[in-house]
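SUBJECT: A protein chain and its fold
Encoding: whole-number codes for local backbone shapes
RECORD BEGINS BELOW THIS LINE
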Amino acid sequence: MSVPFFDYKKLFLSREDEFMRIIHDVLARGAFILQKDLEEFEQKLASFTGAKYAIGVADGTNAITLGLRACGIGCGDEVIFSSHTMVATAGAIVMAGATPVPCDVDQDGLMDTLSAEKLISPRTKMLMPTDLNGRVANMDPIVALAERAGLLVSEDAAQALGAKYKSTSAGLFGKFGTFSFYPAKSLGCFGDGGGLITNDDAIAEHVLAQRDHGRSGLGSAEVTIWGTNSRLDNVQAAILSHLIDYFHENIARRRAIASRYHEAFKGIEGLTLPPPPSTTSHHFDTYQNYEVRSVRRDRLREYLKQRDIGTIIQWAGKAVHQFKSLGFSTVLPNTDHFFNECLMLPMNHLLEDSQVTEVIDAVRDFHKA
């Protein structure tokens, strides 16, 4: 049985009639840019996360850049981020005019507060943890460090919509949080898309203007700040507005698959698993990805490939600080070790039970052999 890592065609075919009705409705109305569909999605996203404001933008990378600029982060400033993230996190910091400073990871593969603290300099202005694989970073020590050092906090929560830490939604622990709606995300559209949430009036006003060339409001001729074109396409917003109504079901499905994986793989020597779904811990995980660590990672991946099971080594196996051509020279031993062993198994709400069983059988067969 073939088990693709993510079936992009199935994402559309799973609700084809509904999607075509939505697309036809938007196009027939000529509702292409900054229309009611975007407003409706933003209202739903704000309600879902508990944020005061939710703003749709072109993609998750732009969301970070606009948020940083709204916080006054720019030339001469440094932002400390976890190197276990997509290069886009650091790229957004650079696009805001600041300097990205990568730090090491903890046992969860997320921002390590002790590592971040050692990197604070007089130029440091913000800590930006990345919430990965549907798990929020351990925010208490991060927020405490920021308060001690007089720093701001923001979250790259591109992979964590719906995840919580101590009942607070991903993206709400600092000045702003950002999401990606790339098709393979747990809430994904049919192209690029992103969002920013905040409880700060000034940041919301600034980002709304920035995303539309600095204009102070829809149809306004008044330009109040320098801005750019970073508006969430209205067709994508309509699709997302429809999908977010089913999002709790998708999260439940991912958590059910994660439970099956955990029960099947726990105790396998040389295989480190993410924490299982829990209703009692501080973390409510949504399992955007199911990332394991294996001391025989490459052999396991090849075996699964032979069984026609798709896997991914996240970001082609490179942490951000390992891109030496970008000027990084930091040594981060925990992150380096993590990237020698990490591997993502198929994880999404579109997987059939039989496909999950196929993945489980293949992983167990490999370790029996």
